């Protein structure tokens, strides 16, 4: 199992309707057949860390992760989601292969190569403070 937890906050000026649209897109992505489970909601961690919401998804294995990453619902969802986020932090874990981190990184780099604008947008959000 590969688990991806994203903590994020919305950009200043994002309307409640836009927030609802982003969260709906995240819920669609988290409910893909390639995902074992998913949760989208409010971050209940330390507010001083600057996050307001979380996205968590469990993916059974690397094959499912690759399908998940390239699913048209996920691709379309990111087009709705990413422009409205101000900051993003990821925590990833696995109960499986100790070399899974390198394999996940390889899948991520393959997606960045296919969708370079997506890769730049994600990198910018991960660097934001």
From TrEMBL:
InterPro entries for this protein: Dabb, Dimeric_a/b-barrel
Matching Pfam families: Dabb
Stress-response A/B barrel domain ranges (all copies): 2-93
This protein's name: Dabb family protein
Lineage: superkingdom: Bacteria
